[in-house]
Amino acid sequence: MSAATSLFTPFPPFSPLRKTTSKFSTTFRLRLPSPITTIRHRKHSPFPTFSTLPGGGNNSAGGGGNNDNGKGKGGSGGGDENAGDENRKEAMIVLAEAGRSMETLPTDLADAIQAGKVPGSVIDRFLGLEKSDLMRWLMQFDGFKERLLADDLFFAKVFIECGVGIFTKTAAEYERRRENFFKELEIVFADVVMAIIADFMLVYLPAPTVSFQPSLAASAGVISKFFHGCPDNAFQVALHGTSYSLLQRLGAVMRNGAKLFAVGTTSSLVGTAATNALINAKKAVDKSSVDEIENVPILSTSVAYGVYMAISSNLRYQVLAGVIEQRVLEPLLHQHKFLLSTICFAIRTGNTYLGSLLWVDYARLVGIQKPQEEENPVLVS
After folding, report:
1. Could you give the CA distance from residue 141 to residue 170 in angstroms, rounded to a whole number?
2. CB under 8 Å to 87, separation ≥6 — which residues?
3. What does pLDDT average to over the chain?
4. Positive/negative CA dihedral, 13, 16, 19, 23
5. In Å, what is the CA distance from 228 to each residue of 198, 251, 302, 366?
6. Residue 291: what pLDDT?
7. What is the reported pLDDT for 10?
8. How do residues 53-89 score in pLDDT, each as one tens digit?
9. What predicted TM-score, i.e. pTM, was given to this entire model?
10. Which residues are registered as beta bridge partners of 30?
11. Which of 109, 118, 181, 363 is the most exposed, fewest CB within 10 Å of its CB?
C-alpha cells in the first residue's frame, strides 16, 4: 500500500464528551450563576485523530475548513449538528474561563463560534497568541491569522525557512563565484532576494489553516465552489465536525501547484531580468568581461523554475507541513516547543538541500543548465 494511502487509514472517532479520560485530557468545572448548573469543559487530547477522507472528522485544532460548499460535508446531518453544538459550547466555556465576551473577538472568529465551526482549542490558541504584541498585529491579516490558529509556530517556521534560504543561497553563490563574489555582488543580491520570496511562499501557501472563508454566492461556478471547499494543505488534520474528501485533498495539491507555478515563474522572471540587466551594465563598463559572463535565458529559466516549484517544491512542502510537522512532530512534542522548533529547523534545512539536488537534475534534464554550470549549483527550495 502506498505511503499516501496509509496517511488516511480511518481511526475510531474521538468524542470530546465521553466519560473516560486519559492522561492527556483535563476536566474543568465552571459554575454559572444559574442554580446548580455545572458545565464540563474537556481539553482535547494533543494527539490528533486521523479522519477518514470520505467523511467524519476529528477534534484537533490543527486543520482548517468550514461547512460551506463541500468543505466539511461528511457524515450525517445530525452528526454535523452535534459537532457544531459541541464546538460552540466548548468555545463559550473557554471565553468564560478567560473572562472574555464575543464582542471582544474579531467578527469572523465570533461568527465562526456562533456557527459552531471552531472548537474551544482554537479559541484557547487565539487567546494565547493575543498576549504577544507581534502576533496580535499579525492576526489583523486574515492569511496570517488562519495559519497561526492552525500552528502557533508558523511564524517561527517562516524565519527558519527564509534564514536557511539566505544562508544556503549566499554560500552557494560564493562557492560558484569565488573570487568574483564581491565583484558580482549586485547579481548575488538579486538572486538572494528572489530566493527569499520563493522560500516565504513555500512556507505560506502549503501551511495548514483554520479557515473563516464566507460562503460563495449561489451564482459561483462549479470549479470555484470545488476549490473553495478544498483545504490549504492536502494532508492537514480537519477540525472537529469537519472532513475533506480525497478529491478535495487532491484539489489542494492542484490549487497550490498553480499558485506556486505563478510565484516561481514571476520571481524567476524578476530575478533573471535583474541579473541580465546588471550583467549588461557591467559589460558596458568593463569590455574585458564581455566573453566571461553570459546572459541567463529569461523565459525558459522562469517557466522551468515555475514548473519545478509547482511539482517538486509543492509536494515536498505539503508533506513536510501536513504530515511530518502537524501529524507526527506536533502531537509528540506539543509541550516542548524549543525541541519542536529545533527538529523543524533540521528537517527544513535537509529539505532545502534535497531541493537543490533535485533542481540540478531537473535543470539538466530540461537543458537550462550546462554541465559546467552544475558543478557548483545554487541551492533552491
Report:
1. 31
2. 113, 116, 117, 118, 119, 120, 239, 240, 241
3. 77
4. positive
5. 24, 10, 28, 34
6. 60
7. 42
8. 333 333 333 333 343 434 444 444 455 678 889 999 9
9. 0.72
10. 39
11. 181
